[in-house]
Design brief:
74% of the residues lie in helices and 2% in strands. The protein is mainly alpha-helical. A two-stranded antiparallel sheet has the order 1-2. Helix 8 packs antiparallel against helix 9.
């Protein structure tokens, strides 16, 4: 009997001990949960009160700050749009640009291999016609020379990291690029001025007409069969290049001048957009010039001499600009003379 009572007391004491420990565990859990929110809030308050956290949060959001520097967006330390510009410029433009130029060059080379030079259908008789004045030729060649300089220096800045550094090394490329950038920046406004002068000087002769559409069907007789299309002093292809060159030249010229003067109230976003437009149009401008250079040199017999000397043969005029030749004969102003 005594043993039973003692056993019962021990069982009761064991149960009470387990219940007490369980209650203690529940109390501890509630205490931890209750203190969690204040701890999190305290951490949040500490983070909000940290001036460094607030500073860099504002920097990443592009919030204006205070600075002694002068210029547009001077209070913005880091502009996230700069990373987007870098990816487009170094990735899309610089990545696709070389392939565009290579594709155009390859098409011109294949065309020349298949069709060959567009030769004169009649042998030159020695009769020559005045076509371009000395002022016009000087304007053309100075603009062309400056265009070549701008193209070489501009493409060097765009593709130099991937193309020139592996060939010449970092030190040589750095010295060349510094000079190329200065030449490009200072020559840009002069190139823009020459484009404007060309546009004013030759716009009247380059007004498109319906007959110019016929020229493009056979590229002036270089493809297909049948008689060559009629053309005035400037044929359809030359008119197309004139307007393309004027529009592209004005675009790269104006955007280039904007980039030459970044502190004249221009925002960073505008500078980034202008830079992408400048590079994209410049690549297309150079690609189009390859076709113009081809036609003006080895593509069509007698064309280069016209712009170099200012005179063309009567056979060339009748073949490529028959209406202009007829007008010269009619007015008696052809200036014909033996070579």
């Amino acid at each position: 009997m005594v043993l039973s009572v003692i056993h019962a007391k021990k069982s009761t004491s064991l149960r009470l001990s387990r219940i007490a420990r369980l209650l203690l565990l529940v109390v501890v859990v509630f205490l931890l949960l209750g203190s969690g929110a204040p701890l999190a809030k305290a951490a949040s308050d500490d983070n909000a009160a940290n001036p460094r956290a607030n500073f860099w949060r504002a920097v990443r959001q592009g919030v204006d700050g205070e600075t002694t520097a002068r210029g547009q967006d001077r209070g913005v330390l880091i502009q996230n749009g700069g990373e987007n510009w870098r990816r487009i410029r170094n990735g899309l433009v610089a990545g696709i640009g070389p392939w565009v130029l290579a594709a155009v060059f390859l098409m011109i080379a294949l065309f020349f291999l298949i069709k060959g030079q567009d030769k004169l259908e009649e042998p030159p008789s020695g009769e020559m016609l005045d076509r371009w004045s000395s002022a016009e030729r000087w304007l053309h060649w100075v603009t062309a020379l400056l265009f070549i300089v701008m193209a070489i220096t501009g493409l060097s800045m765009l593709f130099g990291r991937a193309v020139l550094i592996p060939v010449f090394g970092h030190r040589a490329f750095s010295g060349y690029l510094g000079a190329a950038m200065q030449i490009h920046n200072y020559a840009g406004p002069f190139f823009l001025a020459l484009i404007v002068i060309e546009a004013v000087a030759w716009v009247r002769e380059n007004i498109p007409k319906r007959m110019d559409l016929v020229w493009f069907k056979t590229l002036g007789g270089m493809i297909g069969h049948g008689p060559r299309p009629h053309a005035e002093k400037i044929n359809g292809g030359a008119k197309g290049w004139f307007w393309a060159a004027v529009l592209a030249g004005l675009t790269v010229g104006v955007t280039g001048v904007i980039m030459d003067f970044p502190n004249l109230g221009t925002s960073r976003w505008v500078m980034q957009v202008v830079n992408i437009i400048h590079a994209t149009v410049a690549i297309l401008f150079v690609a189009g010039s390859l076709g113009h250079i081809y036609i003006g040199t080895i593509g069509a017999q007698g064309t280069f001499e016209g712009m170099w000397t200012g005179r063309v043969s009567a056979q060339w005029a009748k073949q490529h600009q028959d209406l202009w030749y007829a007008d010269q004969v009619k007015t008696g102003s052809q200036g014909a003379s033996p070579r």
